[in-house]
Amino acid sequence: MMKLLKYDWKRNANTFSGLLAVLVIVQIILSIIGKVRGWDESVIVVSSFIFYVTAGIITMILVCKTFESNIKAYHRRLLPVHPAWTVLSSLLLGVLTAAVVAAIALVHASIYFNDHHISYHNFMGSGSRGLMDLFLIALTAAWGYILLLLIIFAATTIGASISIRGKAGTWISILSFFMISSVMGWLEGLLFGDNDPPRLRIGVFHLGAGADASGAQAMGGIEFLSFAPFLYEAAFAGVMFYAMTYLLRKKMEI
To answer: What is the pTM of this model?
Structure first.
């Protein structure tokens, strides 16, 4: 797997490095212009956040395109490698690139807080539990990102496994993504009795007010790390992973 990861990284290194360099330069320019022109701090913070989210989305797209290229490339199918390593190498590539973007954002936030004399408790609220909350938020966000990547990979694999001429495979992948997401969300609501108003669900990272009956810890409108839904989503991720390896193995046999 590490050899596959090394190959994928080399193939995308220039693009990723260029994106990170542009991100850092843009953030520096934004901070300087904001101070010189006397912009409101909320404008600078929101703009910085948008740039980081954009960079994260671009890296995710690159990782997904790399995975799609790997499962469609004839020379990759000839390698004596179990399909599971193909999925895991792309997944690890996505996690590493997202971690780098998150690290840059964390350093930027630390510099900003120190420069403006903002303490952690003032930012998170009086009810925060210090590093424990940061750890839980980071763990929840990481799991949500991994689960989202797995759903995209599964949808891409389904589309690539169906031999249809033209662009039909792409549309099948898009349809599969929404079907998998809908089924997973519907079953989760059915199993854990979520009768609250609809909320955005990405893994165990739920955006909404209050805590649910499954014991989620709530803070600032964010619920994280509900244990029972996490186990369900982990099991669902395992099913998707097995389905991907099965489809890829059958495609290699053909």
So the answer is: 0.81
What's the rounded Cα separation, in Å, for the pair 85 and 155? 18
Angle between helical axes of 168-192 and 227-253 (0-180°, round to 10): 150
Contact between 168 and 109 (Cβ < 8 Å)? no
Task: Collapse the DSSP code of 77 into the 3-class scheme (helix H, G, I; strand E, B; otherwise coil) and give the result.
Answer: helix
Three-state secondary-structure class, residue 14: helix
β-strands 222-224, 217-219: how paired?
antiparallel
State pLDDT tens for residues 126-146.
555 556 777 777 888 888 899
Token pair in block for residue 216: 């989620």
- What letter does residue 127 receive in the DSSP assignment? T
Q: What per-residue string of b and e applies to 174-205 under the rule 16 or more CB within 10 Å gives b?
A: eebbeebbeebeeebeeeeebeeeeeebbbbb
Residue with tokens 């990723």: 16
